[in-house]
Amino acid sequence: MAQTLLMPKATAIWLVDNTALSFDQIAQFCKLHPLEVKAIADGEAAQGIKGLDPISTGQLSRDEIARAEANPNHKLKLSEPKVRVPESKRRGPRYTPVSKRQDRPNAILWLVRNHPELKDAQISRLVGTTKSTIEQIRERTHWNSANLAPMDPVTLGLCSQIDLDMEVEKASKGRPLPTAAELGATLQSAQETERLIPSYEREEEKEKEIDADAVFRKLSSLRSAPKDEDDDQY
């Protein structure tokens, strides 16, 4: 576990008031800017903050302060802690509130259907479940499979959209691109497309056929009209 100074501003106030350390030494130790330390000394900054004694907290020794006061170029170092606290690492699935646990199977079903590329470990991280539950829902052997309905885990508040997008992106990195059959569409060959007649050409052909028939009808009517007139004269 990395050592960090507790309450740096409060520590800087105590060092300014109780030691002869330079502003640069205090700024380096407390991870502050020298001008900020000068403002603390002038009473222009950190007003209302009570100083914290780093000696009482075990983060600085009196000998270390004495060495720094004697040598302006000496940099203060944190004392070794007497007790080391290991970093807490979260293991297992994410904690889910009791009020939302009943929605987890629906969210798992949604993830299994809409993102089959996700691994069981990723689903477990997103909604806080176990691999056995995911397997049961995927194989439809869950005790409540008949009543499950797929629901978006983001809408249910089980995970954020950012977390979901990150897991989907990770799972899709090594996945091959989908084929035409998977997308549900196939491309026609060039020979088939050449045989196709555009729709507007079809309409023109129909119009031509209609116009030709109309012309023939008109001609036949014109030819029959003079014969009728001649018959009337006789």
The chain-level structural class is mainly alpha
In quaternary terms, these chains amount to: single chain
How can the largest sheet be summarized?
A: none
Based on DSSP secondary structure assignment, what is the total number of beta strands?
Answer: 0
The residue-averaged pLDDT reads 77
Number of helices: 12
* Helicity level: 40-55%
Low-confidence stretches: none
Give me the Rg, rounded: 42 Å
Q: How many angstroms does the end-to-end distance come to?
A: 128 Å
Shape: elongated
SSE series: HHHHHHHHHHHH
What is the gist of this entry?
The protein is an all-alpha fold and 234 residues long.
Note down, in words, how this protein is organized.
It is built from 12 helices and no strands. It is mostly helical. The model has no long low-confidence stretch (mean pLDDT 77). Helix 1 packs antiparallel against helix 2 (23-30), helix 2 (23-30) crosses helix 3 and helix 5 (104-114) crosses helix 7.
